[in-house]
Amino acid sequence: MRPIFNPEREFLQNECGIPLPENSCWMDRLQIIGYTIEQNKVHKHVLGKVTVNGMKISYKSKNNEIKYLTHADLANHYDDRLSQLESDSMNLTRDMSIKYANHNVRICSSEGKDSLVTKHIVRKVLPDTKVLFSNTSLDTAQTYKSIKSDANYEIINPSEGFYQWQARYKYIPTKHHRACCPIFKENAMITHLDKDTPYLFFFGMRNQESATRKDYMDEWQNQSWNTSLWVGVLPIRKWTELDVWLYIIRERLVFNELYRYGYGRVGCIAACPFRTPYEGVIDKNFLPTYWHRWQRILHDDFMENGKWVSLNCTLQEYLDGAWKAGVLRDDPTDEVIVEFATYKGIDVATATKFFNQSCVACGKKLKKDESALNMKYSGRNTTHKYCLKCLAEELKCKTSKLKQDIKDFKQQGCALF
Fold this sequence. Notes:
By secondary structure, this protein is of the alpha/beta class. Helix content is 43%, strand content 14%.
């Protein structure tokens, strides 16, 4: 749940012709929401729903003519609740600073909305608290501008930027396996700070954010820290996302400009697999340089690794988001097979033999090059295929020899590879 600000409102109007009122609408999981007050009770209304198909969006409107509360009016209505939340969070901050009086106090920030509120509240109690920011190198100019507006910051820079690291390892993060957060945020902080020095960290994590965080308590420790001297505190863990935004509006806090474009979160633009399809459209429109760079990386990865076969998807499907979640479908469509055949310069019948093939010895799904090597050795019509390990056993040779054969066949320009 987040407010829709003018840049996003104008974007939606240009893309879909949505006539949205200014400073009155909210986005809640692609539903556009408005609020009214009737008999001193707040009522939520759905104005319509945004749909994302590929890199295009559409909108289904309910043609509501109701006059909705402005963002500021809604914040004023919840003033008592916001004041109580603020008081509870400040008391927790004060209690923890007393309990851990000998610890060095830091606020850990991503420059997002939750970090902003946490920073504001902690500094009401501990005015000179320094902020730690882990620079993932995937942040934007808007985020760096936000950092530089505060002089009391300590920036943790990685030894190697994300794009350099990605190029070295040819790594594409997915929802099932990603290394970017541990490497460029957690590990960077662990490496930067002395584990024998006691620290009291304030984080903006909230219970409502995810199933993983719903059971977090006021005090929290990251198992990766490998030290008992570091303590984390979550002063706004009980707040909802709506609470956070209403508080920001009430306090008139200066927030990261990315939220004005329609982002739900501000870290790791374009390359984060947990970015929504809608944010992909936002990337393309508001941050095209970042979007095009990541699209080029995805394009090269797909082509070089022949991911038609491993993911059962087309190149465009991969670029539009299939890279985030692994295998797109159980069986390839005709379009996938034809596109792969065209790229490889082979006939469709031969191309089909690359898909959903398993080792006859161990049952392991074959990779593209393994399937190609079997056809190279036994003919394109073979139905008896082995994985690299089992093929080496069958041929009584080392897998290193087969790997070298694959390299040689590629250098010779064999269409199968």
